[in-house]
Amino acid sequence: QVQLAESGGGLVQPGGSLRLSCTASESILGFIVMGWYRQAPGKQRELVARIISGGTTEYVDSVKDRFTISRDNAKNAVFLQMNSLKPEDTAVYYCNVFRRVGLRDYWGQGTQVTVSS
């Protein structure tokens, strides 16, 4: 069982920045994909960004050039740097990993991001 601990959410003004962190209970080298999803009230959960084991990154169009996903193998962590935040970025952000052993995914508990003046 993989445990994922997220942190870094909060309240920020439009145009501000936040950095989300997701720390795994085991080596992230065992994960094929690590990603961030978000779910706003009344909306479906959507993929925001993901990083594949070879280093390839993918972003939803609405966050390209504003968000950056990265990982630190030594810290067993994946990060989401969010810049130029907009009110429409307000959502609960979830960390997700797809584990090579067992071929299944795991979710974090979510962290709230609120962008408001």
Can you give a write-up of this model?
The protein is mainly beta and 117 residues long. It contains no helices and 11 strands. It has strands at 4-7, 10-12, 18-24, 31-39, 46-52, 57-59, 67-72, 77-82, 91-99, 104-107, 111-115. Strands 2, 4, 5, 6, 9, 10 and 11 form a 7-stranded mixed β-sheet that branches. Strands 1-3-8-7 form a 4-stranded antiparallel β-sheet, with no helix packed on it. The protein is globular, with a radius of gyration of 14 Å. The relative contact order is 0.32.
Shape designation: globular
Number of strands: 11
- The arrangement of helices and strands along the chain is EEEEEEEEEEE
What percentage of residues falls in helices of 4 or more residues?
Answer: under 10%
Number of helices: 0
List keywords for this structure.
single chain; 117 residues; mainly beta; 7-stranded mixed sheet; 4-stranded antiparallel sheet; 0% helix; 54% strand
Short description:
With 117 residues, this protein is mainly β. The chain has no helices and 11 strands.
Annotate the secondary structure layout.
Elements: E1 4-7, E2 10-12, E3 18-24, E4 31-39, E5 46-52, E6 57-59, E7 67-72, E8 77-82, E9 91-99, E10 104-107, E11 111-115
Parallel strand pairs: 2-11
Antiparallel strand pairs: 1-3, 3-8, 4-5, 4-9, 5-6, 7-8, 9-10, 9-11
